[in-house]
């Protein structure tokens, strides 16, 4: 009887994890000039042997991440290597705060622990060796989007973290005299690094605040920036 019960529970978990077409866990390396932070919540079974999923919202330095994380999911964040405060909140009521001193090139695993019996949950830093076995059984949470009211500048932009990133060319005219005749204009290219989406949104927000564009124009600009590849 116990064997049958165990098989049923295992099948339930496998079926549940397959639903929603979640991307399986994939180990990553930190970006240049960044610390890699995984946040995950294990899949739990309630006392009546049925699956029970919690849902949690996350904050970085009191700025909310739009995407929430559920039991059986993980989220991966490339953050600036500095002191930061991360927090997890359940049902917009219970919040647990975790202070970290992030180091460049290091990987951190943060686990949401919830017994689902009415008691307060916990949000803790795990040992890498123990966390790797647990997080491998989770699936990737949905993607998040940036809100102009809460731009999370703590993220490291992958486009600006690579020294070999693509650059755009600007042309600057240079006056070169030839035999005291009319000057000849010679074009000299210089390299200019592209702006990140966050920088572009902030520029557009400044234009709105100065009254140069209205709210509707700002929203249209923001949508176009976020949709750019």
Q: Count structural domains.
A: 2
Helix content: 10-25%
What is the tally of beta strands? 14
H and E string? HEEEEEEEEEEEHEEEHH
Shape: globular
The SS-based structural class is alpha+beta
Biggest pleated sheet: 5 strands, mixed
- Uncertain segments are 1-20, 47-51, 162-169
Strand content: 25-35%
Radius of gyration: 24 Å
Measured distance between first and last alpha carbons: 55 Å
Strand order, main sheet: write it out. 11-10-1-7-12
Mean pLDDT: 74
The number of helical elements comes to 4
Task: Compile the SSE list and pairings.
Layout: H1 2-18, E1 35-41, E2 44-45, E3 51-52, E4 55-60, E5 63-64, E6 69-70, E7 73-79, E8 83-90, E9 94-101, E10 107-113, E11 122-126, H2 128-135, E12 139-140, E13 168-176, E14 184-192, H3 197-209, H4 215-227
Parallel strand pairs: 1-10, 7-12
Antiparallel strand pairs: 1-7, 2-3, 4-5, 4-6, 4-8, 8-9, 10-11, 13-14
Helix pairs in contact: 3-4
Overview of this structure, please?
There is one protein chain. This protein has 229 residues and is an alpha+beta fold. The chain has two domains: 2-150, no CATH class; 197-227. Helices cover 22% and strands 33% of the residues. Strand 10 and strand 11 form a beta hairpin. The longest helix is centred in the N-terminal third of the chain and has 17 residues, at 2-18. The radius of gyration is 24 Å and the shape is globular.
Key structural traits:
14 strands, 5-stranded antiparallel sheet, alpha+beta, 229 residues, 5-stranded mixed sheet
């Amino acid at each position: 009887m116990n064997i049958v019960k165990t098989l049923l529970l295992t099948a339930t978990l496998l079926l549940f994890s397959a639903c929603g077409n979640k991307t399986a866990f994939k180990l990553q390396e930190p970006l240049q000039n960044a610390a890699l932070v995984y946040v995950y919540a294990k899949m739990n079974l309630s006392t009546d042997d049925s699956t029970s999923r919690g849902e949690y919202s996350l904050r970085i330095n009191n700025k909310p991440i739009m995407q929430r994380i559920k039991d059986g999911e993980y989220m991966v964040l490339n953050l600036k290597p500095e002191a930061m405060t991360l927090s997890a909140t359940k049902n917009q009521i219970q919040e647990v705060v975790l202070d970290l001193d992030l180091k460049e090139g290091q990987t951190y695993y943060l686990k949401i622990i919830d017994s689902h019996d009415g008691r307060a949950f916990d949000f803790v830093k795990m040992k890498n060796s123990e966390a790797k076995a647990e997080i491998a059984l989770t699936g990737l949470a949905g993607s998040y989007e940036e809100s102009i009211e809460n731009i999370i500048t703590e993220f490291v932009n992958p486009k600006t973290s690579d020294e070999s990133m693509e650059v755009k060319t600007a042309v600057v005219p240079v006056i070169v005299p030839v035999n005291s005749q009319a000057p000849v204009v010679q074009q000299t290219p210089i390299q200019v690094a592209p702006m990140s989406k966050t920088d572009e949104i902030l520029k557009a927000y400044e234009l709105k605040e100065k009254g140069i564009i209205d709210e509707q124009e700002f929203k249209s600009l923001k949508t176009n920036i976020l949709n750019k590849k």
